[in-house]
Amino acid sequence: MKTNYNKSITISKALLLSVALIAGLCGCKKSYLEPDPLSVYIPSTTFSTKGGLDAAMAICDKQLRSYWTYFEYTDLGLPISTDYLFTDVAVASKTDDGNIFTDIATRLTPTEQPERVGYFWEQAYAGVKYANTILNYIDKVSGLSDTTRNEYKGRALFHRSYHYLGLVFRFRDVPLVTVILDVPKVDYQSTKREAILQMLTEDMEKAVQWVPAQEKMSLIGLVNKASCRQLLLKCYLATGQWDKAISQADTLINNSGLSLMTASFGNFVSPYASVWPVTRNVIWDLHRPENKGIPANRETILVMANRNNTDMGVKMNSMRNWLPFLDNVGTSAPDGKQAVRFFAPSSTSFRALLDYKDAIGRGIAHIRPTFFHQNSLWAVNGVNDAGDLRHNSTVGNWARMDSLKYNDPASTAWYGKNVRLRNASGALLCTDTVRNWFDWPHYKYYIEDVNETGNPNEANHRGGAGDLYCYRLAETYLLRAEAKFYKGDIAGATADVNKIRQRAQCTQLYTTVGIGDIMDERARELNMEEFRFAELSRVSYSLALSGKADEWGNTYQVENLAKNSYWFQRIQHYNDFYNKGRVMVKNRAYTMAEKNINWPVPQSDINANGGARLRQNEGYTGYDAGIQMWTNWQDAVADEQPKK
Question: What is the SS3 assignment for 447-492?
């Protein structure tokens, strides 16, 4: 089924017309990713016209999306997948990969940063550079009104703050870069995380004042006032300002023209319904890429345009990365034939009624969900909530392995019968349950690639480009619940979490919530939308600031999170792979250490910054608590000015 929604929302012309410029500045070449940190802090082009500013803003928007998609097409290793490897809900699972990133505790070092760990450092500073380009040169552009000038500044502050919030909750104390340099600077010092957070908060307070609301904008996909509020809300949480966080959330929920979607809306896209039927429901509609940016969707705060067969499209290969390796000899029917086969439509073995290639996609399980994410997460009040639309296989949202049917015509005795994990005598029919056997949220992961599904000779369907949520209102409720919990308003926090559960048609509601329940609900609602590790790191920090206890009665100290954090407790309690000694892949155990709440600063950047020493994080080679760093952001900014 071919789906076309390229005309459903209006996108900035700058984004479409500046592709060549984007390619040049974003560096879609390998050389851009080679260690050369100083060049990241220097402009490639001086923007002195409004057209140049628009192009720079388009680059900022593209850079934001790149965290989900990578900045160009890539087969495996989406950045967001790397983030999820550091959480309670997912682990690496490509079991034929000798470099599989399972042994994180010992293998993650300043000189070895597997998967996309280093990407988050490199691309964040690239995003900072693009935002700084606008901020540093906008006052040189003539013909702009003060209102227009401030709009540009506000959006640039959003982008810079977004990237820095990710940096400080992945890498902790990092260099603060706010200016575009005329000559290389090789004596940056690290700036304390608390100081950077203070600057981000002040910047976002300005952005909220300067950036217009969406209803006053003709374009969808640009940073708007509501998205600035959402980021400011997170900054308030990160600086312990609970009342201000609640106030921002109240404004978003009650006074911004936004609302949770509680009924079906938009286009009902149910491709290959004869193979994988979907009973129309609000959760399914909410997560169709075709519906994310339409005016009828009042839940969207900020959408990132990502379209098949356009200059702004980057295929995510979501099904290839995140679905089990179904088309594999390691899973068989009781008669020994392969359980699931993916045939091109032109093949004589192709059967349209069991065409799982097109209907669900061809996965190879680069990462996989934990048992917690598949099963125990969904129990509330001790009851597995079968009504929850986000975990509901009856309506077609959630995919279970035993819902699939054997589809190899050569398996005459078992063709069309439901797939089984064990045979009648109890023996496993799957030789690799890490990679080949797990359930998944079909409603989240299915993004059709019309080029592959429309090709009669294609046996792959890896996942195409589709619009992405950066922020939506459901998260706002959960952020407000978090702030209310820290403040001690447990009834208010409970009501906010239950609001999300009610929309999902859950049968079980909370009578009271703690931080664990709030983070569980985030895992249910925001899977593969939020960067869960970065959020768990932030929440660990905020929880320590609050002095409140977690679900096990533990309290934490901000300066001691590298040795004792809420994030690590969730790894220990909920992730059934890390540090459990149950599984080895390619002679690598699944391990995670307390220090990994902070990722190591890349050694290449430390070496290149020869005029001063950057602070390495505790627990990694090169850590030295005596290295000087800036403790307020004003001093760090002043140090960027040319020396007289």
Answer: CCCHHHHCCCCCCCCCCCCCCEEEEEHHHHHHHHHHHHHHHCCHHH
